[in-house]
Amino acid sequence: MDILFATSNPHKFEEAAAFLGQRGIRAARLPFEHRELRSDNLEEIAREAVDSAYSVCGKPVFVEDTGLFITALNGFPGTYSAWAQKKIGNKGILKLLSGAGDRSAFFETCIAYHDGKSVSFFSGRCAGTIAEAARGTSGFGYDPIFVPEGHPQTFAENILLKNNISHRYKSLLEFSKSLEP
């Protein structure tokens, strides 16, 4: 099976394509830049994006939106994670958490799939904490500062771990199951 993934993020595409390829689904990237809806709701953002992507390509397509929600920062950066990563990066997040006792956080991903008739959603969540300092060189974005629950390493220190337990993995797993005949 072939499917389009509308994204401007090549790293997200690489992760998704590798996972889906193992399940016999070939993903092609639809480079997709659009003015993202501002909302505190991942599903709302994903719905608007997939509708926009479908109107561009006219073929079954999926999008993915992810947020990092940090308890001590009242859920920030949340749905503004990509923006915050560009503006303040991991150093800025660590500075905001300086002296914070509660470093708990979670990643959440929402996939929206438009098959031409309806839109379906698939979510995944991964709980963890924010490290005291960036560690590791694999992955991208917040991977060097996110330590998944029950593990000592950041996602950037152990990319195989990320690929097997992450928020994106969980949402892609549910999504791929829905595509099975």
Kindly describe this structure.
By secondary structure, this protein is an alpha/beta fold. It has one domain (2-179): Alpha-Beta Complex (Maf protein). 35% of the residues lie in helices and 28% in strands. The protein contains six helices and seven strands. It has helices at residues 10-22, 42-57, 81-87, 89-96, 159-165, 167-179, and strands at residues 2-7, 26-31, 61-70, 77-78, 104-114, 119-130, 146-148. Strands 1, 2, 3, 4, 5, 6 and 7 form a seven-stranded mixed beta sheet that branches. Helix 1 (10-22) links the parallel strand 1 (2-7) and strand 2. Helix 1 (10-22) packs across helix 6 and helix 3 (81-87) crosses helix 4 (89-96). 38% of the residues are buried.
Q: How many runs of DSSP E, i.e. beta strands? A: 7
Q: What is the beta-strand fraction?
A: 25-35%
**Which overall shape is indicated by the principal axes computed on the Cα atoms?**
globular
> What is the fold-level CATH name, i.e. the topology?
Maf protein
Mind telling me the C-alpha Rg?
16 Å
Low-confidence stretches: none
Specify the CATH class.
Alpha Beta
How helical, in percent, are the residues?
25-40%
Number of separate structural domains: 1
Which second-level CATH architecture applies?
Answer: Alpha-Beta Complex
Order of helices and strands: EHEHEEHHEEEHH
Number of helices: 6
Tell me about the biggest sheet?
A: 7 strands, mixed
Average the pLDDT over all residues and give the rounded result: 95
- Distance from first to last alpha carbon: 10 Å
Structural class: alpha/beta
